[in-house]
Amino acid sequence: MPTLLPLTCEALCAIRVFCDLPADVLTWLQQAGELRRYAPGEVVVAADSPADSLVAVLRGSVRFGESVGPGGYRLEAGELGGALPYSRAERFAHQGVAETETEAYVLACGRFGELERLSPVLTQRLISLMNDRTRAEVRAQEHGERLRALGKLAAGLSHELNNPAAAVSRGAANLTHLLQTIPLGLLALVATSPPAAALATVTDLARRPLPPVHSLPALEAADREAELADWLETQGCPDGYAHAAGLREAGLHLADLEPVAAALPPGSRPAAFAWLSGHLLAARLAADIGEASHRISALVADVKTYTHLDRAPTAGPLAVTEGLDSTLHLFAHALRDKNVRLTRAYAPDLPLVLGHAGSLNQVWTNLLDNALDALPATEGTLTVEVTAEADRLRVAISDNGSGIPPDVLPRLFEPFFTTKTLGEGTGQGLDIARRIVHEHGGRLEVTSTPGHTVFTTWLPAIRPAA
Question: Any bridge partners for residue 396, and if so which?
């Protein structure tokens, strides 16, 4: 239990908000409140207790929350917190604990009416303090929610990056091995002394453009590879299957190879086709490495677009579909895991909107995250539709989940309201999304029936001058 201490007007002047107040106001504060001493670790304010008192620290410090940072803060000597005039908070969200031996002035909320009549100046100061604290808390909530969303995307993003990175590493190792053996194959070919014209037919095939990767169905590719391997063995190649893959992946057919074989002396054919296969396989590996590195670059660009790292933190004209696409790319792993059928329906010639790309991407993240959680285990469908209607841009994200119960729908945008189990949701995502949309001059709506839920975002469009 805290110890009550005698309180003087001079002691109250240590509180920055109370300094330079008239003597009668300080006397009223002295008589209306209490000065309490708390031992280190003693609870000053219990979590979820009624928000019924203002707390000002004269000496020591009080920590609210588990740690100082997002969701937690500290009151140092001279600072004021707790309940403030006109605050709508009914309960304390965090527990306040004395970090050292602490002296705190406590004023019950029931005296705020008297204070307002006695000192409108102090009341205005307290209201300004409350507004500043509210803005800081909102920023912390948005930052924390964005970090939570990014953390949820991190696992999928790391998987998306790991695949092409592994392909680059594997391809580089194989290419290094091939580049060490190809010169030996060339020496073996030259040693057979083929005519120059025959060599030209081989090098012409080596310079042919490569077809797209996996352009053939697996079964058809296996049949063609077997056909090439059998043919190579008839040409004296003892390891036809070892060279057939490189020729097949280069898009070569028997009709391409037979004229080359006819131009070459029989003794030169095994070395010629071995060198050709190795060269084409090296070209394919180089193309694969290029494609994988391009995929990594595209993912990095998506992250850059998503986080808005390459632009100033000011509002500007932007294409909503770019942010939607970058966000969907970051959800690619989650979409594949749930086997979701995704449909993008973007109208042509969409106008730009004026806004913060990073903030709007947080809206898309929260809405897509909720839609994914609501989708059925099988045959889930997700549709992202963007259209222009009059002077507004309409972004509709719909899913075929079970729907939102009618009793839940009115509370959906309430702060900290969630239907998810403990640890899966904070109840802040939709509240923050609606707040961001409102800050952009738009609105966020939801309609839901069993099997069909639609979150619709309306944003003011920028129309070019006539």
Answer: 385, 456
Cβ atoms of residues 57 and 100 within 8 Å: no
User: Per this entry, what is the length of the chain?
Assistant: 466
- Residue 250 CA to residue 252 CA, distance in Å, equals 6
CA neighbours within 13 Å on the CB side: how many for 116? 9
Decide if 71 contacts 143 (C-beta within 8 A). no
The DSSP code sequence of 360-421 is: HHHHHHHHHHHHHHHS-SSS-EEEEEEEEETTEEEEEEEE-SS---TTTGGGTTSTT---SP
Q: What is the pLDDT of residue 397?
A: 95
Q: Give the per-residue SS3 of 252-267.
A: CCHHHHHHHHHHCCHH
> 287, exposed or middle or buried, with CB in 10 Å at 0-12, 13-18, 19+?
middle
- Alpha-carbon distance of 391 to 385, in angstroms, equals 17
Structure-block tokens of residue 114: 């008297």
B/e letters for 31-61, b = 16+ CB within 10 Å, e = fewer, are eebebbbbeeebebbeeeeebebbbbbbbbb
CB 378 within 8 A of CB 337: no
The mean pLDDT of the chain is: 83
Q: Rounded to whole angstroms, how far apart are CA atoms 210 and 252? A: 10
Can you tell me the distance from the alpha carbon of 190 to that of 188, in angstroms, rounded to the nearest whole number?
A: 6
Whole domain around residue 174: which residue ranges? Answer: 155-299
Nearest-angstrom CA–CA distance, 39 and 262 = 98
What are the φ and ψ backbone dihedral angles of 96, each rounded to 5 degrees?
A: -105, 125
Please say whether the beta carbons of 449 and 403 come within 8 A: yes
The span from the CA of 444 to the CA of 374, in Å, is 18
Q: Is the pLDDT of residue 352 over 50?
A: yes
* pLDDT grade for 348, boundaries at 50, 70 and 90: very high
Q: How many domains does the chain have?
A: 3
User: 118, 141, 163: which is the final residue of a domain?
Assistant: 118
**CA angle (139 as vertex; 134, 140 as ends), nearest 5:** 95
Determine the Cα–Cα distance for residues 47 and 92; give it in Å rounded to an integer. Answer: 6
Band the pLDDT of 142: cuts 50, 70, 90: low
Phi-psi region of 52 (alpha: psi -120 to 50; beta: other; left: phi over 0): alpha
Q: 205 near 277, Cβ under 8 Å?
A: no
Do 321 and 448 lie in one domain? The reply is yes
| Domain closes at, from 269, 299, 329 | 299
